[in-house]
Known about the structure:
By secondary structure, the protein is an all-alpha fold. It has ten helices and no strands. It is elongated and about 60 Å long. The N and C termini lie far apart (55 Å).
Amino acid sequence: MRAAALALFARHGFAAVSMRQIAAEVGVQAGALYNYTPDKQSLLFDLMRSHMEELLEALPSNSAAPVTEQLEEFVRFHIAFHDERPDLVFIAYMELRSLEPDNFAVIEQLRGRYETVLESILQIGAGEGAFSVGDTKVTTLAIIAMLTGVTTWFRPEGRLSLRAVQDQYWNMVHRMVTVAPERTV
């Protein structure tokens, strides 16, 4: 049921998918779905929450490593983790608008925990003089958006391997945080 809902939400969008369509995809009557989930909203929330919890659980923590290595590890991890879950990534970012306020608050809190890991690396690096970052929060959000975007275009059968993509994105992120920010007037 979760896999069918995930595929349908990713293909058609949450609002366009009915419980009847999910049931048909699974091969059961619509009423049978309610034995497993109270409603479509709960199903969407469960998919998003599970994704964020798995992301946080899998996130490597190597705080003893030099800060540049921590940042590289974060970049490579984010790309690899999300590459394996493109439909979940799409839903986790594009269907936030479909969550009811209480569910949105839970997902936002989980996303905040993930963002804080990267922001802390950037703050430590800036404090040590390893990075030159104007605003760590804005830089955090920019890096995450850039890394997450890989799932929209990367294909394993394409001209670049996942490792080559990770290498290029690491180089871009590294240059982004080690170049002095432009001054604004």
